[in-house]
Amino acid sequence: xxxxxxxxxxxxxxxxxxxxxxxxxxxxxxxxxxxxxxxxxxxxxxxxxxxxxxxxxxxxxxxxxxxxxxxxxxxxxxxxxxxxxxxxxxxxxxxxxxxxxxxxxxxxxxxxxxxxxxxxxxxxxxxxxxxxxxxxxxxxxxxxxxxxxxxxxxxxxxxxxxxxxxxxxxxxxxxxxxxxxxxxxx
Amino acid sequence: xxxxxxxxxxxxxxxxxxxxxxxxxxxxxxxxxxxxxxxxxxxxxxxxxxxxxxxxxxxxxxxxxxxxxxxxxxxxxxxxxxxxxxxxxxxxxxxxxxxxxxxxxxxxxxxxxxxxxxxxxxxxxxxxxxxxxxxxxxxxxxxxxxxxxxxxxxxxxxxxxxxxxxxxxxxxxxxxxxxxxxxxxxxxxxxxxxxxxxxxxxxxxxxxxxxxxxxxxxxxxxxxxxxxxxxxxxxxxxxxxxxxxxxxxxxxxxxxxxxxxxxxxxxx
Amino acid sequence: xxxxxxxxxxxxxxxxxxxxxxxxxxxxxxxxxxxxxxxxxxxxxxxxxxxxxxxxxxxxxxxxxxxxxxxxxxxxxxxxxxxxxxxxxxxxxxxxxxxxxxxxxxxxxxxxxxxxxxxxxxxxxxxxxxxxxxxxxxxxxxxxxxxxxxxxxxxxxxxxxxxxxxxxxxxxxxxxxxxxxxxxxxxxxxxxxxxxxxxxxxxxxxxxxxxxxxxxxxxxxxxxxxxxxxxxxxxxxxxxxxxxxxxxxxxxxxxxxxxxxxxxxxxxx
Lengths: 186, 268, 269
Fold this sequence. Notes:
- Chain A is α/β, with parallel strands linked by helices.
- Chain A has helices spanning 3-28, 137-155, 163-181, and strands at residues 39-46, 57-60, 63-74, 79-87, 97-102, 109-114, 127-128, 130-132.
- Chain A folds into three domains: 1-35; 39-132; 137-181.
- Helices cover 34% and strands 27% of the residues of chain A.
- Classes of the chains: A alpha/beta (186), B mainly alpha (268), C alpha/beta (269).
């Protein structure tokens, strides 16, 4: 085998590999979308962050404006301090509202920013004071079911009605738990 | 009489197990030594890089066909199976994510490594084993040419360079295969296929981790193939056994390493 | 400059507790063709490996050009090996390289000669073994005798001081054998080198050797010029030189009594 032929083939081989990697990066991966320019970071305290993780998107009006940098536990206030990095191109008022939302019913959690009305904007190191915690589905469902149960207890005086709703609640609770624990298979 | 026979067979079995264990550990040590020697003498072989290019041709380019064809089929099967399950939950658009993530994270590196062990690894073992059997390595040594620098190192680096390229190609072609099944055949929406994929495949944690895996597999598979060839008894039977061992040990090592690497990557 | 280019001094070598050589003494004077003869498995090839520094002796030493081989580091051994050329039993040509590239191999690996000069040198070496016309063949396309000649051209590619031949006549037809025989002698004299031949082919070896060592049971059993050895009355040498079936080297490998082994089946188990 001639040396130049080998060089040619190896060149084609490497070029194919680079092309495939570029294809993966651009077409398959989120390299293009996750590119954030220079950022500034702000913190927000939550009582419960649910399953929010570092690198989770920060969205405003549905557009990704930043990423969660890290999450630490503040043992003084027993709260979670979430540091988020926001693209410098986007300025937010000081009274911006930070929520933790879930994408879809079982999707990953992200931070949603709702702009307030103040003129002053958030700067590097500022703290967002208005926050809303992550919704914990099972907590919500059990609250809902318990309130239902107490309603029906007031309405209905029959003896067997007491046991039924609580078992129902337990059933729903366990069902919710199992879907939460088992991540989607991919 | 019977008692002593039983005792004898027990001690013989135990001795056999012990001997095998020692043999295995010895091979591990000898293989590691060869690995470090290869790294140590790599500088000499890099001075004449066309040797490595030549080996990239034989291990990488010659494996292209089998990699591309199997990737295409693997991608198509993934899409079919994935669709079958996903449509029950009404989320058949997620098929792109399923195909891409399984390929980029697992199947790309692992199946490529297994195919590589079967296609290129055996070729390397047989070639080195035959070179040893026909005294070519000895002849080289007697000519004051270091066989590790001249024969082993170029093949090692060729394998290490080829594997990630092959794995990347595998993933890409596999995704295209999945696309061919999902979009024109099943009728999943074209835009949803790609956008769902892009939203859920992360460059750093998925694609780069896959590349790291295939790089590690490349080192392991090539080194195993080289060591088995280098260590093969200089007979026809010895070489054929070494070739078989290359496939078996490479496959097991790849699967075990995959578990270790995956658990590391998911934790960090 | 000593008169002997290679000296083997009280050399013992063995592995796994079994001694293959027990105190061997040999000298190889410059410019001579010296043969080491002995039955199969008598450790002749191992002697060549010891001279080449591929293995270390258990006791004693081998000196090449006055330097003790096994006390050299890697660079030292490689330096010594550049003075040596070796013809392996089956040629050991690199099967992935053409005849030309095989002969050019040591020049390309060990020298910085320009490619045009390498070309001329390779053609000269190939011409010397009569295979200039086969320069672009692959080793698999060569007959056994031709492969051996190419290997010989490769062994002398860098004009070594010592040329070692491991069974150069084994498995060749009479014509090729005669050609190789001639080549060994003529190359030795043309290069002013020293040749060490390991062989068990009595006729050819005696034809070209200046001096012959007989190795048996790990010792030098006899030595002398071919003429002396032909006349030797030592039983072993006589048996070997004349190819007799039975003698000091018995036909039968040591075994239990034939009759009792056949009759008493349980003892065979």
